[in-house]
Specification:
Layout lengths: L11 H6 L7 H10 L2 H24 L2 H19 L5 E2 L1 E5 L3 H10 L6 E2 L5 H9 L4 E9 L3 E8 L4 E4 L4 E4 L5 E5 L10 E3 L7 H10 L7 E7 L3 E6 L4 E3 L5 H15 L6 E5 L7 E4 L1 H21 L1
Parallel strand pairs: 2-5, 6-9, 9-10, 12-13
Antiparallel strand pairs: 1-3, 4-5, 6-7, 7-8, 10-11, 11-12, 13-14
Length: about 300
Amino acid sequence: MRPLRAGRPTTPARRRARRDPAPSRLAYRLHRLWLTPLFRGIIRIGLPVALILGGGIAYLSDDARREDLQAWLAEQRRAFEERPEFVVKLMAIDGASAELAEDIREAVPIDFPVSQFDLDLEHIRRTIAGLDAVAEAEVSLRGQGVLQVSVRQRVPVVVWRGRREIALLDETGHRVAAVIARAMRPDLPLIAGDGADRAVPEALRLMAAAEPLKARLRGLVRMGERRWDLVLDRDQRILLPEGDPVTALERVLALDAATDLLARDITTIDMRIPARPTLRLGPGAREAFRMINLFELEEGAVGQ
């Protein structure tokens, strides 16, 4: 069945008026450009960042606005740092004597309360570790606003009489503290002489070997920065060699145990040449020896 209304004839002009569904050349190129990752990154990230930076530079180009911003930032930072949870109120010191604790507080004069952001913990630790009496130091922040200082204190083992001072030394020869007089630490043995502080381990071995003479021992003197003299009461000295002094001292102790050598009128036992020990007699023994020789000479003359 045919329609009652006749269709319009299709003319060439009408065919040309129809819209072409294909994109234009410009739209095609823009679409291809948008598919490029670099271009999308520039549009999505680079352009906003550039706008923000440009606005910020334009705002901060004015000196007054820049100073106001800096002051506001400093105020906000200070307000944050001074919050109660960041305030340090006191210092706690563990492992130190009362004297050392006082020295630590003098070496690190902190005006409490103070913000923990104003404390340089590493600088504080180095300062405390630099004290003579401190072997090791640790510094940390504890709860409740406490600056915790933990130290390992050096233990003095000898008194060293040097040219300019009298000092306490630990087992390695490190200086612990100065003392006014040797009598302040009568419980510690005495060493003296140049270089004695650098030979403390050897001095301790000699003192351990000289334990039988402890009641008579007055100290050790470093001679020529290379060897020791063991000083006893009654002005007696044992001159020890540079090499293996402990063995030489043990030989003297063995002789003393067998012959009461040190109880005699002898001022010096020279062991510097271990194969040839030498004795120096006291004034009384020398006089007695002289009298004996004189008596023997007289008897010889009478016998002739």
